[in-house]
Design goal:
single chain; alpha+beta; Cytochrome p450; 17 helices; binds protoporphyrin IX containing FE
């Protein structure tokens, strides 16, 4: 029971930073650096361990003695969890079944479609535009919805669901947010249950139809997979594109994206990663960075800090689109390495190069655009720009 004289722990006590503080959101990397100055494993006032170096984050993500364990501290009321939250052997089985349908051939076939959607969106942008709602958000939404075979008239219904579900990714949730995330998950599952029934009867040329043909997947597993793909496909790439435009514009480098989209996307992923952190649990008594970590201890891998580790990246706080950002951890590592990394890169490259080509002199209409304030995902609420084309 709580002592009435003890003030409740603040987010900063628990996490070492306040994810809702506008100053932190503007540049979280300053705080991450301070945390890393205490050593590679930061212990917050509430006792949470946070790995701040590339080396320790790599161990956390790669060493099978760390896993999901009992999963995230959340209560979304999902009857089945997606494989993102599972350990082997369940993770291995489910990821294998899904990646069978998520083939490179399917992705390559998508390229012309992604280009066409991007061209439409970019040419529809007004002279003064919000690039989040006008490009960064609708592009990945349309792509993942089309991949899953969701009819175009339903795409917009997904926005609210997906925003609430994305908050369900955060490891620490208030009761209200957890309830909202649970409600969204329920409505979303009801919707997909119907669509799955239709696709079982009349399979189309889409990922959902392909998944319904994988007989080893139970309906619960299939639904959880759809939620995962939808959230991952909605809420991450939007931030790659918007964080990309913001950083490129601030550094006067947008034009570079037209000629070197691959390099640019990798540096954006390193410098300002859409997924800032993830967590693991020690599955047995261990030691990490010289610190004893008893079985069941949760440890956070601070990807945003690992990507600025001076031991791996020279002059890490410099946004340098000519560097080789090879070993960044933006897509994680090990068995949970992002299944959508190729798709996300393709979308990011196409969007940034199309924008740089159409509006190379674009500038920010709001120099300090506001952030959404999620814990795991780092993304802008809006990005007002003047296109000057
Ligand atoms: C820039 C965009 C993206 C970023 C930065 C990103 C990042 C990540 C990260 C860091 C993980 C690992 C999480 C962990 O280890 O705890 C992950 C997993 C995953 N991502 Fe992505 N992602 C992106 C886009 C996408 C897209 C577009 C899709 C699919 C449409 C996708 C599907 C997945 C799936 C299915 C997993 C779970 C893999 C597993 O548990 O085995 N992601 N992503």
């Amino acid at each position: 029971m709580n002592d009435v004289n003890t003030p409740p722990a603040t987010p900063a006590d628990v996490l070492g930073f306040d994810p809702f503080d506008p100053e932190f959101l503007r540049d979280p990397y300053v705080r991450y650096r301070e945390m890393s100055e205490h050593g590679p494993l930061f212990r917050t006032r509430a006792g949470l361990l946070i790995a701040t170096t590339h080396e320790l984050c790599t161990v956390l993500l790669r060493d099978p003695r760390f896993g999901r364990g009992s999963g995230p501290m959340r209560a979304t009321g999902e009857p089945a969890q997606s494989f993102l939250w599972m350990d082997p052997p369940d993770h291995t089985r489910l990821r294998g079944l899904v990646s069978r349908a998520f083939t490179p051939r399917m992705l390559e076939r998508l390229r012309p479609r992604i280009e066409a959607i991007t061209t439409d969106l970019v040419s529809s942008l007004p002279k003064e535009a919000d690039l989040v709602s006008g490009l960064a958000y609708p592009l990945p939404v349309m792509v993942i919805s089309e991949m899953l075979g969701v009819p175009p008239e339903d795409h917009l219904r997904f926005r609210g669901w997906s925003e609430s579900l994305a908050r369900g990714l955060d490891p620490i949730l208030t009761d209200d947010l957890a309830a909202e995330s649970g409600r969204a998950a329920q409505e979303f599952r009801d919707y997909f249950r119907e669509l799955i029934a239709i696709r079982r009867e009349r399979p189309g040329d889409d990922l959902l139809s392909a998944l319904t043909q994988v007989s080893e997947l139970t309906e619960g597993e299939l639904l959880a997979t759809c939620v995962l793909l939808l959230v991952a496909g909605h809420e991450t790439t939007v931030n790659l594109i918007a964080n990309g435009v913001l950083n490129l514009t601030r550094h006067g480098l947008l034009k570079h994206a037209a000629e070197h989209p691959k390099q640019v996307v990798e540096e954006v992923l390193r410098y300002d990663p859409p997924v800032q952190l993830t967590a693991r649990q020690a599955l047995q008594d261990m030691e990490l960075g010289g610190v004893p970590v008893p079985a069941g201890t949760r440890v956070m891998a601070l990807i945003g800090a690992a990507n600025r580790d001076p031991a791996v990246f020279s002059d890490p706080d410099r946004f340098d689109v000519t560097r080789d950002p090879g070993r960044h951890l933006a897509f994680g590592l090990g068995i949970h390495f992002c299944l959508g990394a190729t798709l996300a890169r393709m979308e990011g490259e196409i969007a940034l190069s199309a924008l740089a080509t159409a509006a190379p002199d674009l500038d920010l209409a709001e120099p300090e655009p506001p952030y959404k304030g999620n814990l795991v995902l780092r993304g802008l609420a809006r990005l007002h720009v003047r296109l000057r084309r």
